[in-house]
Amino acid sequence: MSITHVDVRRGAYHDSVTLLQVSRTVADAEGVEAAQVAMATELNVEVLTGMGFDIPDGAGPNDLVLAVRGADDAGVAAGMAVAEAALAAKSVPSSGGFGDPPTPRTVGGALRAGGADLALISVPGRFATAEALDAIAAGASVMLFSDNVSVEDEILLKDAAADADVLVMGPDCGTAVIGGVALGFANVVEAGPIGMVAASGTGAQQLMCLLDAAGVGISHCLGVGGRDLKTAVGGRSTRQALAALAADPATTSIVVVSKPPDEAVLADLEEYAGGLGVPVRWATLGAGRPDLTSALEAVLRAEGRDVPQWPAWVASEDPEPGSVAGALRGLFCGGTLADDAMLIAAESLGDIRSNIPLRDDLALGSDLRDDGHLVIDFGDDGLTQGRAHPMIDPSLRMERIAAEAADPTCGVLLLDLVLGYGAHADPAGELADAITAARTAARDGGRVLPVVVSVTGTEGDPQGLTATCEALAAAGASVFLSNRDATRHALTFLGGTR
Amino acid sequence: MTQPTAPTTGGPLRGLLAVESPAVATAGVPLFAEALRGQAVAVTEADWQPPMEGTEANLGTVMADTRRAEANATAYARLTASTAELCDVKQAKDALGLERGTFLHAGPPIDWERASGPLRGAFIGAVLFEGLADTAEEAEKALAAGKFTFEPCHHRNAVGPMAGVVSPSMWMYGLRDEVHDAWSWCSLNEGLGKVLRYGAYGPEVVDRLHWMTDVLGPILQQSVRATGPFDIKSILAQMLQMGDEGHNRNRAGSLMLLRELLPGMITADASSTDIAEAVRFSGANEHFFLNLGMPACKLATMAAHGIPGSSLVTTLARNGTDFGIRVSGTGDEWFTGPANTPEGLFLGDYGPEDANPDIGDSAITETAGIGGFAMAAAPAIVKFVGGDVAFALRATQTMYEITMGEHPMYQVPILDFRGTPTGIDVVSVVRTGILPQINTGMAGRVAGTGQVGAGLVTPPAECFPAALAALAARV
């Protein structure tokens, strides 16, 4: 008989990535069956409840929950001891030496202490505005990774930044490359002539990886946040970023990549870009507009470059084209990759339900379940409150892959995997295991489940593109560098138009 | 003042795109700092923690207030530019127009009902000293019956150490800020042990007050009028380089002050016996200077007060029951919470159970950038207040996290003459959760006891979110 133990510590804050590491350490302890150490956000409480833990009422997002299920009392005690030790190891006093200044507590203090040029802020969203204002006041541009920042605050920050002649990249900005420095999630690519403005993190990564495969490097990639091209924000950061890149001698042409923008904002920006004296090209997603890969191919042609054959590893044991009965299930970590896939798939499949739907009436319920075609973005704000991004903590998506494998309405699994700095150090191993398990489970249920993976990465990335793709291919998946090609391949099993 | 980092080169975004391998400051997920270090990028990682609970909306509002940067720059400039010269010594009735039956006290406003032991004791002693009652019981009865008026020293541009009780006949030092044309006043120091400011009111206390009124006050007045004014700010700057921090250690300052006052005291129109006793009394008191340092600090914070939009703290004060703060941009509103009890070292047989909660206006020193904030300049203080030398160094360095700048005159030799952390910012306190470090004396809990020890204390945290909310409401 298992024993569960739940301990709530009021006001004990730790960041979600640290807690993820602590949770894993505890789960590995002798005699522990399951463990989760997390801040008691609504989402985490739901996850904990789902794991069979009883969370006391009144536990809130500022409270730390230590939940351990052990085989017996000794297992629980061992787990709690490991948790205590792991948490204590994270809170070693920062200084104490003779005259050593203490570690700065705020981003402004860190900017001054280090004479830094730039701030990277990834605190929980409700605290992010204060930190970003602090950085702007200190005269530094900001990459604001934090999500769950209100649009009012975003506008306030961007106006303050424009007044101070600095750039706010974000909120919810996952990717930037400045002066060869990769910030957040970014891939290792060569320096080159293309400047990027990105209202999309994984969209930017997809483009820089395709450029890398085509042998073209980038000068800088300036993030602007996923809402920058929406009506409310009106392209505030995009304008600043375009002007900065146009004035940069290393940049000879610019690509703007975005999730589906507001048409009027896009039109204004196109007009603005026309006066900059540098070619500006657009990889802005939307119905009737080119997908990311096609937009990038157009850029290459406009630059007078060859469009290469995009790398692909096609599985040999998959069903015949058009022979699969179930629906498309796209489980993504990258929001723009999910959008790109949905836009491509919708052309042949029609309506696709999603937590980031192309139309409001296609929204999934909070259980994220549907029998038809669906695409889920696990990196969406609603699924990251108090949790690390799925590119760091893939556990929610892993659970869903297992669920889809057992679901007879799932015809084909379309996944993404993003490599580079900031991403999981060895994502291929875990994902390959999950793919193998899913295909085995489906086979046990009498189905052959094709799995297609869109891998965004470069050979220079710490994880290595080829090594990653080969590991996934060995697990039976088809693997593509181009998100378009991956999506199209997944669609072939469903028989294309119906 | 906090200055924006200088633009590295020309070009948009302060030349950001022209920087080769920019240096990065991070706050939040450690993973990103690690990823940057993996690229051999220079990274400074903030040890970020969430701000005080429930403050995020007000922080956003106040930090986005477009007046704030300039308001704080103005407040800080005024605070550090203020001068402080000892220009006169007068009785409170003449200096402050203090009426008979009115008593000033330390800290935020309070009534008899809520007054702590030492404050009650000091009121009793002052009533006896003024001849408004014949016995302590009679005085207490009249006080409890509401026969007298209480008012904070701060409301009269004055400050008082510990209980800070001032009555009309007491003599006060008058300090003037020439730049901002202001005066601040503080009573004469009575020495250590059983004294009024620690709540003692026995015959020796009242007798000493009479001697100070009849003998010491007039001699000091003659000295200052004959040979003053004396630059108190300059003594403060020097004493920090001589091992004092200006709150709980005033040894060098007291000697320097005596050096200034002596010629005028010796030539005063008084008997040689009285002059000798006045000189002996002043020289024997190692806190003689405290009552000059405090009004000098009060002048600085007065100059910084009342600037709309400024989040600079201009008052930290305690009455033995409540700790109160005031902020430049919120005018004369007090934000209070229950005073903490200091932790530290005890005299004789006294122990923690004998200590009264924090009391006195002397935290004006920390408000102006000395005292606990200058502890690194006074490592010997740890013998008196507890802790070790590393603690003293750390205390000062930590205060830079919650202050606006480094004082141009008050410097810490061991930190390479870095200016003391000056100008507490409510926003920084709320964001970091770091509370101002105060060095203080400890009064006995029971009225009449006197001093029981000295130690370290912080304000109750709740004063700061309340002040922040008031700032946000004024945006």
TrEMBL record, chain A:
Gene Ontology CC entries for this record: cytosol; succinate-CoA ligase complex (ADP-forming)
Domain ATP-citrate synthase/succinyl-CoA ligase C-terminal: 331-491
GO molecular function terms attached to this record: succinate-CoA ligase (ADP-forming) activity; succinate-CoA ligase (GDP-forming) activity
Pfam family, one: Ligase_CoA
Annotated GO biological process: tricarboxylic acid cycle
InterPro entries for this protein: NAD(P)-bd_dom_sf, SUCC_ACL_C, Succinyl-CoA_synth-like
Protein's name in the database: FdrA family protein
Organism: Knoellia aerolata DSM 18566
Lineage of producing organism: Bacteria, Bacillati, Actinomycetota, Actinomycetes, Micrococcales
TrEMBL record, chain B:
Pfam families per record: AllG
Gene3D superfamilies, per the entry: conserved protein of unknown function from Enterococcus faecalis V583, Enterococcus faecalis V583 domain, v583 domain like
InterPro entries: AllG-like, OXTCase_su_AllG_h-dom
Annotated protein name in UniProt: YahG/YlbE-like protein
Annotated organism of origin: Knoellia aerolata DSM 18566
Lineage of the organism: Bacteria, Bacillati, Actinomycetota, Actinomycetes, Micrococcales
